[in-house]
Design brief:
Radius of gyration: 21 Å
CATH topology of the largest domain: Rossmann fold
Number of domains: 2
CATH class of the largest domain: Alpha Beta
Strand content: 15-25%
Strand order of the largest sheet: 6-5-4-7-8-11-10
Structural class: alpha/beta
CATH superfamily of the largest domain: Vaccinia Virus protein VP39
Helix content: 25-40%
Number of helices: 9
Distance between the termini: 36 Å
Largest sheet: 7 strands, mixed
Length: about 400
């Protein structure tokens, strides 16, 4: 498929609406030094909107620059807020689709936390596939095994009853090709397919430029996601927005003899077109406004730190150019402590460091964690000004 066509539906009706030059190609790789972080490879990002299906893609994406390995640190499992969400989702899926005593395959399982949860709660057998898996991070008596590799059609030999894929499809440029591969791997079996991924609606309407970064080359709405699933041989059962509308869920199966009618959530092209126009016009101003606010505070002697050192932090710092005004980042993930943020090079510290070096302002990269972070700061006797993107 040509880079000048939609990777989801093959249309050539693409509308360019946002560009960033020379951004870090990775935002979750562990950087051992400030020099390594600042010298990370960079590429351009060019977002195109498909007028026919609503899919958004980085048309100049180059997958050859990526290194998905055990050095890739993407887990959110150190957050109680995220863990509660993940467990609730696991329980919902288990009950809705009676996932008890089944074989569950997860594509892009990360460090394996969600697959382990599904298997523990439903007494299931699990197979996780991810080149970044770390075996020393799994502690469970559940029947799970992991393959540190990329997914391919041969994994269909596992005869899974359920296929999971959470926060992986957005990292794939040829999305149609991947979904066709998954469908071929299933063959004639009846299989439940459950995906979760970021929502482009929130990015566009909320001017969430911090959710636009190089690893995410593919952006979906509920409608564009459903259209891709239908076109590649799946029956769409349910669509939902979750986690403060940050994530999308699609639940499907492979029963070809029972076509489900389009769901109301799929009629979203007018909303998407309006969102693209809004983002194109307003996002540059939003970026400039946030940068000016932090620079003004810095000029008055106020120290601002970021809470969150992952993808959102990399995107925020890259877009705003606040390399000097932000001294360091805070993260609850201990595997990131003492490492450096890709691109800008700030060192990552644990929350307890704030007791030694108290800032005036803490800028939280994800608003949904404000209550959790506020409570942690209070427990340490700290009361900086707490803000969120």
């Amino acid at each position: 498929m040509s880079q000048d066509s939609c990777q989801s539906c093959s249309s050539t009706q693409l509308r360019r609406f946002f560009e960033l030059d020379a951004i870090p190609v990775h935002s979750c790789l562990l950087m051992e030094s400030r020099e390594e972080a600042r010298n990370i490879a960079r590429r351009d990002l060019v977002l195109d909107f498909c007028e026919d299906c609503g899919f958004v893609q980085n048309t100049v994406f180059d997958s050859s620059v990526h290194r998905y390995s055990p050095q890739y640190e993407e887990t959110q499992a150190y957050s109680s807020t995220f863990n509660a969400f993940a467990e609730d989702l696991a329980r919902q899926w288990i009950e809705r689709y009676q996932i008890y005593g089944k074989r569950v395959l997860e594509i892009g399982c990360g460090k394996g936390e969600f697959l382990v949860k599904i298997c523990e709660l439903g007494d299931n057998e699990g197979i996780g596939i991810d080149p970044g898996y770390r075996p020393e991070r799994t502690h469970t008596k559940a029947n799970v095994r992991f393959l540190s590799e990329f997914y391919c059609e041969n994994h269909g030999d596992f005869d899974a009853d359920v296929i999971l894929c959470r926060h992986s499809l957005e990292h794939i440029a040829p999305v149609r090709e991947l979904m066709q591969t998954i469908r071929r791997s299933i063959g004639k079996r009846e299989t439940i397919v459950l995906f979760e991924l970021p929502a482009i609606e929130r990015v566009l309407e909320g001017l969430a430029f911090e959710d636009v970064y190089y690893e995410h080359c593919s952006y979906f709405s509920l409608g564009s996601l459903a259209r891709l699933f239908r076109d590649t041989g799946f029956r769409v059962l349910r669509l939902a927005s979750v986690y403060d509308d940050q994530y999308l869920l699609i639940e499907a199966d492979t029963r070809s003899n029972a076509k489900a009618p389009p769901l109301p959530e799929e009629k979203d092209l007018p909303r998407l077109r309006a969102g693209v126009q809004h983002f194109q016009k307003q996002a540059p101003g939003r970026i400039a406004e946030l940068a000016a606010t932090v620079r003004a505070a810095s000029a008055q002697g106020e120290k601002t730190v970021l809470w969150g050192s992952g993808s959102k932090a990399v995107a925020f710092l890259t877009a705003t150019g606040l390399d000097e005004e932000i001294e360091f980042g805070i993260d609850i993930n201990p595997h990131k402590h003492g490492r450096f943020i890709p691109g800008s090079g700030q060192e990552v510290k644990g929350p307890e460091f704030l007791q030694e070096d108290v800032p005036e302002r803490v800028l939280v990269m994800n608003r949904i964690y404000l209550p959790e972070i506020g409570a942690q700061l209070k427990s340490m006797g700290l009361s900086p000004k707490l803000e969120a993107l």
